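Subject: for your reference before the review

Hello V.,

The reviewers asked for a structural picture of the protein, and I figured it would be easier to keep everything in one thread rather than splitting it across files. Below is the amino acid sequence we used in the manuscript, unchanged from the supplementary table.
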Amino acid sequence: MSPEREAPVDLKRDEVARLAEGYTPDMVRFLRDMIAIPSESAGEREVVDRARREMERCGFEEVKVDGLGNVLGRIGRGPTVVALDAHLDTVGVGDPSTWTRDPYRGELKDGVVYGRGAGDQEAGMAAAVYGARIMKELGLGGEVQVWVTGTVMEEDCDGLCWQYILRERVLAPDVVVITEPTNLGVYRGQRGRMEIEVRTQGRSAHGSMPDRGVNAVYRMAPIVADVERLNRTLDARPDPFLGAGTVTVSEIRSTAPSLCAVADSCTIHLDRRLTRGETADSAVAEIQALESVQGAGASVTVLEYARPAYTGLTYPTRKYYPTWVLEEREPAVAAAVAAAEQALGARPVVGRWNFSTNAVATRGMFGVPTVGFGPGNEIYAHTPDDQCPVAHLTAAARFYAMFPRAFAAAIGN
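And here is what came back from the structure prediction:
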């Protein structure tokens, strides 16, 4: 990126910082409002409406809700299309006794906002909306149009929202910024994942005469042990950037005519994380090759997702979410690093997520350049300590205001 192209961003840095600081109370208010709306996957209608109203309040030039229920707001009309993505759904609360705060209050204490969705990941939405507003007010857009996307069903099925957006031609971005928590680092990859079921068949008999039946749970037991051993094998071959793939049993269930009968079927659910070079086919083949699976005649299946969105639309997909990596030399990464340096006053950490994001679709399935930058730390995701520092909202808004021009410069526009 040439000094001539960087200069306009540098000249606006202090003004961006001033506006971001001034809008911080609005971002906090917006975030707390979203936290106060329970919005688990397929139940996002109310929080989508809240986000739509905030976009309109902030002067977005176009706001729309697509058929799946994603809300999209635009600022600018240039040919280069930048999307800032935040999913608006959250996981549930789980056991309420593990929370020390009301998960839906959005408590603000000592410069930190707490509550379900604070970090994962409604803070990203609050900062993106105001980052786009700042960009517009300071004329930083240039030949760029910025879309802030509040997407749905990510917690249930990461990337489904973007499969819809891209396949149905709702939007065609040149780059996507995922605003999931990165602790204000620039992230350029993540392991993929998939969901696999292994099923053993048995034959029921009365529990007083178990030898007359075939216990499907007993047939499953050596498979569980082999899966545990397979995970240790995977751990021995890590990718230098993404780390190793993993596999774990996340659920086990069985059927029987009654609790006084031999189990006639048993199913385990596998969470498989995929590192570079691993695919759905290779992961399934590893399970099928286990001696215990072959000995039990077990079936191995990649699951399907077909749950209706809050709009009523069902958009089925296979539960395979590809690994993706963007190299550091790519323009999107270079632009993100440059914008982060401007926003933070220091070079950011460049890394990767441990968990999965909508980028499995934008980059993994469709090849759209994708980077991550978001407020909050992923270690608090899905925990009763879900949180985001207020200072991260301010810093992230600065980044989102600066990134579009930095990206346009990086690709020569």
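For the response letter, the relevant points are probably these. The domain at 3-190+323-410 is CATH 3.40.630.10 (Aminopeptidase). Residues 3-35 form the longest helix (33 residues).

Happy to draft the paragraph if you're swamped.

O.
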